[in-house]
Amino acid sequence: MNGKPVMLITGAAHGLGRALAERAIGEYRVALFDRDDSAGQATTEALRRADGEVLFLHGDVSNERDLRQAMERLQRRWGRLDVLINNAGVGAAGPFEALDEESWELPWRVNVMGAVYGCRAALTLMKRQGSGQVVNVAALAGLTAPPGMASYVACNAALIRLSEALAAELSVLGIRVSVVCPDLFPSEMERHMAGSDALSRARLRRALQGAPDSAARVAERILADLPKAPLHIFPQREAKKAWRRKRRRPGRFLEAMKEKARRLRRHT
């Protein structure tokens, strides 16, 4: 391999994507994929000032052609792709009966199909190399299924199962697959939500602001786990504990979720 390995991150201009890029730049050549040109260019310039090898790729993950064109540019620039992190995503929250069509369709197009398109675009390069690593970022909600987030839970659960299926199927091609399942951390997620009502946005904003881990800390833990390529990456200790509690005592876990749902309904 000539030079550092190459990493492509989607949703790289903000939040966790940017934090991943900032921490990966010492070990990787990093391609930033985002639809926000202004923030993407600003992140690119900041990383270049830190002597990083960076390429900004404008595009929308819900458009497969954008990702394929980005992959072609990356191939011309560096000739390979070692790690793809499908990080781009949107949120949705609110009572099930209040979720409109956009609340179901937009998270599916971005969170699930965006990862599908990213994997398909990367596969040509990785198959030719006989190696590569795909990392899908799916919220812990896809495993714990909290109330008041039905569409968000459903699309993240789908992304987790997709990752598990690909981990087996792509292993024969030398491609490793992991899925990251972070719990809440301070971010701009409540600004990028599909069809959510004002009360649900306010609740989410409070939860994000009160979360103990920063995006930088979550990014550090994700990158630390990449060389081991575990199927599931839990970048927060409490996230892994919640997953274990559900697996060991699903009935008790469900009762806790029911109580949470009752509290939500009382304050709606």
- How helical, in percent, are the residues? 40-55%
The chain-level structural class is alpha/beta
CA-to-CA gap between the ends? 57 Å
Percent of residues in beta strands? 5-15%
- Strands across the major sheet, in which order? 3-2-1-4-5-6-7
* Rg, nearest Å: 18 Å
Instruction: Supply the number of helical segments.
Output: 10
Which residues sit in consecutive blocks of at least 5 with pLDDT less than 50? none
Describe this structure in words.
With about 270 residues, the chain is an alpha/beta fold. The protein starts with 5 loop residues before the first strand and ends with a helix. It has helices spanning about 15-25, 35-50, 65-80, 100-130, 140-145, 150-170, 200-210, 215-225, 235-250, 250-265; strands at about 5-10, 30-35, 55-60, 85, 130-135, 175-180, 230-235. α3 (about 65-80) packs parallel to α4 (about 100-130), α4 packs parallel to α6 and α9 crosses α10 (about 250-265). α1 links the parallel β1 (about 5-10) and β2 (about 30-35). It is built from 10 helices and 7 strands. The model has no long low-confidence stretch (mean pLDDT about 95).
Question: Which features does this protein show?
Answer:
single chain; 268 residues; 54% helix; alpha/beta; 10 helices
Which helices and strands, and how do they pair?
Blueprint: E1 6-10, H1 15-24, E2 29-34, H2 37-49, E3 54-58, H3 64-78, E4 83-86, H4 101-129, E5 132-137, H5 141-144, H6 150-169, E6 175-180, H7 198-210, H8 215-225, E7 232-233, H9 237-248, H10 250-266
